[in-house]
Write a structure and sequence with these properties.
- The structure is a single chain.
- This protein is of the alpha+beta class.
- The protein has one domain: RNA-binding S4 domain (Structural Genomics Hypothetical 15.5 Kd Protein In mrcA-pckA Intergenic Region, Chain A), CATH 3.10.290.10.
- Strands 3-2-5-6 form a four-stranded antiparallel beta sheet, with no helix packed on it. Strands 1-4 form a two-stranded antiparallel sheet.
- The radius of gyration is 11 Å and the shape is globular.
- The relative contact order is 0.26.
């Protein structure tokens, strides 16, 4: 297995998933406590997400899928 797993940062994921239109909007959602990662509120926009993590935002539950 690769020692360095592929990841995406939480703010980038929110933009890619079209939950946030801009980095500023993603930052606001995260720092305001509106985002959970694997069931826990996450307030770090640089949080690394890995394949299989779940993100809940705006009433939607999304799963992180990273192809290697």
């Amino acid at each position: 297995m690769n020692a360095e797993r592929e990841f995406i940062k939480l703010d980038q994921f929110l933009k890619l998933a079209q939950i946030a239109e801009t980095g500023g909007q993603a930052k606001y959602l995260i720092q305001s406590g509106f985002i959970t990662v694997n069931g826990a509120v996450e307030k770090r926009r640089g949080r690394k997400l890995y394949h299989g993590d779940t993100v809940e935002a705006e009433g939607e539950t999304l799963q992180v899928l990273i192809e290697e």
